[in-house]
Amino acid sequence: MVVFAFFAVQSETFRSPRGIANWLDPASTLGIMAVAVALLMIGGHFDLSAGVLVGTTALTVGVVATQLRQNLWVAIGVALLLALAIGFVNGWLVTRTGLPSFIITLATFLMLQGLNLGLTKLFTGTVTVGGIDDVPGYAAAEWVFASRVGVLGAEVRVAVLWWLLFTALATWVLLRTRFGNWVFATGGDDVAARNVGVPARRTTIALFMTTAGAAWFVGTTLAVRLTSVQANTGIGQELIYIVAAVIGGCLLTGGFGSAIGASLGALIFGMTQLGIPYLRWDADWFYFFLGAMLLLAVLTNRLVRRYAEAARR
Amino acid sequence: MTRPPTTPLLELRDVGKDYGSVTALDGISTTVRAGEVTCVLGDNGAGKSTLIKVLSGVHRPDRGRLLLDGEPVTFGSPREALDAGIATVFQDLAMIPLMAVWRNFFLGAEPTKGWGPFRRFDAGRAKDVTRRELAAMGIDIRDPDQPVGTLSGGERQSVAIARAVHFGARVLILDEPTSALGVKQAGVVLRYVAQARDRGVGVVLITHNPHHAHPVGDRFLVLNRGRSLGEFAKADIGRDELIRLMAGGAELDALAHELERPGG
Ligand SMILES: Nc1ncnc2c1ncn2[C@@H]1O[C@H](COP(=O)(O)OP(=O)(O)OP(=O)(O)O)[C@@H](O)[C@H]1O
Ligand SMILES: [Mg+2]
């Protein structure tokens, strides 16, 4: 709210419906990822491979469709299977070895980064996959992943609607289902959770697969929207997802947070990213602002934890 | 009074458990029978918690066998033990501090309503049952939505006990359940233990308090450094002898002597 008011007061364009549609756009793809990453963080883990996996899935869609000459929907299906498999491997390794997910997914991150570049070069001879719009099935895929819808006199990308849907779904799952209860418990104390019968391992693996599934969705959206994909897509984004989730109230130690909070974090991010150029400030200020928000958020979160835990111990 | 010789609910035969090079349990045999209270006694570090972790599926024994209704079983996880009707109050209570009381109460056994993809956690019922079960224990939780971490130690222990009593259909295992409780609540817990026993539940009770153990216990298993010092039926052991055994016998006499006022 404060962020919105700040930019809205100073820039006419920022508060116009078109302006809003503009900054909702980066917020939406980031928001879809931030919601999934927030679930994972509530469950007590990080996924550093989430950003590069967006690139991996986008590239897979491109390569399977244009180089292996498949229908675009087949390519999208292959990318989904690949993403879920990678998510499963991440989760399985973390639960099997008991190593910090930070390290395991850092390894996945590096490996995928290498594979993205290496395989793209191998298939196309360059570092981009293009021509995705020439493939059969493109029209339907464009409708699902990259169309525009009129809302209140402005055109927003359909990803914004997906984002709202995923946020609502994640909130419902967290607060109103057994699985949601298990997510909080696994992140809060996985030994205690297991001792009262929570399938903590399966919960963790499912969370890693959810993050991977979100990466697939965003990767596909990018591939269909841009029709060509760079081999370095998504790299560096993984930290932004975590920042959005933390700004939204997720504890780094797990066991606390919300999907709506993560979405708000993504929203703040989108506003700032586009708001700063509107004010004709230098883009460098963006990162300063982001850092300040993050610091503020972790300090607030610390108070939450104090209230609930340190009072009696 | 004689009981018909029934198959024990749970039986340990020559069970041993190691933590790396530390032998926490060795050659322990005991039985848990329906309608009986087995008390496990011993010093700190004697292996009592390890024993109940074997019974409740947290640890698998390294040696020996575990029998359920006379059949050998291995519990792969606490979930499997719970599904067999074995509920446990762990010494560390196994509760999630940041989660609401009612969420903790039903953790792992959440009631649901609806079907298919719309199957959801029946929060209304969970809150009702939680409030009712806690009130029955004499614990008045102001707000079941409050995080467990904000409860007092005794309140937290009461929630864990109420939860185990609610879910422990056949065997109820309590690891030092009264250590943080006031006299009144401790009395309630002992009454619960007696009620569960009378319902035909097999109870395993760990306590350092012989005044709690002796009245409710039917059998007493005394552990020392992971080994059994023997298992005694109530008829064979008086309270004073029990106190002596628990405190390491002769050591207590020496201590009593030492603590007496000089020239008193
Ligand atoms: N997870 C573990 N890893 C390694 N050693 C352990 C572990 N748990 C217990 N031990 C060791 O096993 C022995 C028995 O521990 P246990 O917790 O069963 O004792 P206890 O009888 O319950 O003691 P207390 O009365 O203090 O609760 C101790 O020497 C302890 O140090
Ligand atoms: Mg113990």
TrEMBL record, chain B:
MF-aspect GO terms: ATP binding; ATP hydrolysis activity
InterPro entries cross-referenced by the UniProt entry: AAA+_ATPase, ABC_carbohydrate_import_ATPase, ABC_transporter-like_ATP-bd, P-loop_NTPase
Keywords, in A-Z order: ATP-binding, Nucleotide-binding
Protein name: Monosaccharide ABC transporter ATP-binding protein (CUT2 family)
Start and end residues of each ABC transporter domain: 10-250
